[in-house]
Amino acid sequence: MTPLRLTVLGAALALAALTGTGAATAAVSAVASPAAVAASTAAAVPLFTDGYGLTLVPEDTEVHSPTDFTLTVTTKQLSGKHKIRILLPAGYDADPGRRWPVTYFLHGGGGNVDDVAAAPALHSDSMITVVPDGGLKGWYANWLMQNTAEGAANWETFHLTQVIPFIDANLRTHTDRAHRAVVGLSMGGFGALHYAQTRPDLFGHTAALSGGIDFGKWEIRGAVLATELNLSGAWCAASSSSGSGGGTCVGHGPYVDSDAIFGSPYPVFNADRVWKAVDPAAPANLAKLSNTGVTLYTGNNDLIDVHTAAASKTVHDRLGQLGIPSRLVDYGNGASLAPSCNGGHNYGCWAPAFADYVPRLEAAFATAG
């Protein structure tokens, strides 16, 4: 299709879009004709074209600021429309000869792409940040069952074989693993480690915040089942930015079979073989991170993070046994991290955790040249 240039309706949108912690508070869709673009003196976001199985829905594009916008796409891998929010460094337009590292942020269960507004450190002037839709309960997986109320649900294929090359084709990115990171929290913490293990050729850095990263723990498997059955509870309320007061938790979508994503969770006659195969804490999977920068953050001060703390410690210890360095930050009740953090499963902790992590990631990108 013909590329469309998207105009920005006012500089005030940038402030409005970033002050909330829930869904974007002032998103405006604006798709201009070529004539209008030529006449406009407003800043414009980059041109995007279809590709890699993704078809743009231009009328649904949201422009929050010249460096913060959301595309909507369709793909045969997923039912319905899906958003990709993109945060550009301030100097992206001013330095047209420069290429940039990219960080992919994976949101939590019950969340969406606008949750990134609750972690402002991810909008960096040293890198591009891409926030692809992960579904209310996608679990960053290709589901075993494709005929549920969710319809087609190949999230892993969508992210790894469609979104990443689509971004590289449309933006000035560094495409080597040393300049690409995948980070996430809660459900997205699982996704970040799983993707780094599945495609070490793509990602040189990964970070999991309060991640569901040990499928050997029944509490973590139970969290997956709760999302399948749409039992919202604390996981949904805290894992989305609504958990820090920014909006209303919308749950995890329609009820689906409890075996829909990874199959049976019960270790009887190897029925749980998919769970074990994708378990980020499995030594065979951890061994794939031998050349990857690994960082883990967690509190331990509520009914959720007490389990993510145990999972993070297991991953950290097993990496050490394999001779693979990693950084674990267990901030306990949150006092050592930030005044906003109570050590629980929420953006009051995750935002300062990202504020600690992003400068370290920027330094790693810079060292890579």
What would your notes on this structure say?
The chain has 10 helices and 10 strands. The model is unreliable at 1-42 and 242-247 (pLDDT under 50). It has 369 residues and is an alpha/beta fold. It starts with 11 loop residues before the first helix and ends with a helix. It has helices spanning 12-18, 34-39, 155-170, 187-198, 218-228, 233-239, 273-278, 283-286, 305-321, 347-367, and strands at 55-56, 62-65, 68-74, 81-87, 102-106, 128-132, 180-185, 205-209, 293-298, 327-330. Strands 1, 2, 3, 4, 5, 6, 7, 8, 9 and 10 form a 10-stranded mixed β-sheet that branches. α4 links the parallel β7 and β8 (205-209).
Describe the structure concisely:
The protein is of the alpha/beta class. The chain has helices at 12-18, 34-39, 155-170, 187-198, 218-228, 233-239, 273-278, 283-286, 305-321, 347-367, and strands at residues 55-56, 62-65, 68-74, 81-87, 102-106, 128-132, 180-185, 205-209, 293-298, 327-330.
